[in-house]
Amino acid sequence: MAGIDDIKNAAEKAAGKAKEAVGNVTDNDRLKAEGQTDQAKASTKQGATDVKDAAHGVADSFKDNK
């Protein structure tokens, strides 16, 4: 499932970048801020996914050693 989460997070981050870019072009500070917030949320979600993946890897290594 991590692969799907990675794709979703990347898509959310890309959408945030696009929203920020439109905000820059249109000089819309609210839209720029929303885009930056979307990117931060996606990065946070990706960090959590990475931690879960690492924890699963550690758990699997203990199972293999038995």
Give an account of the 3D structure:
The chain is mainly α. Helix content is 94%, strand content 0%. The protein is built from two helices and no strands. α1 packs antiparallel against α2. It is rod-shaped and about 60 Å long. The mean pLDDT is 90.
Features:
66 residues; mainly alpha; 94% helix
Brief synopsis:
The chain is mainly α. It has two helices and no strands.
Give the percentage of residues in beta strands. under 5%
* Order of SSEs: HH
Radius of gyration (CA) equals 17 Å
Q: N- to C-terminal separation? A: 26 Å
Q: Which stretches are poorly predicted, pLDDT < 50 over at least 5 residues? A: none
Structural class computed from helices and strand pairing: mainly alpha
The whole-number mean of residue pLDDT values reads 90
Q: What is the helix tally?
A: 2
Total beta strands: 0
Q: What is the overall shape?
A: rod-shaped
Taking the sheet with the most strands, its summary is: none
Helix content range? over 70%
List the helices and strands and how they pair.
Elements (H helix, E strand, L loop, with lengths): L1 H25 L2 H37 L1
Helix pairs in contact: 1-2
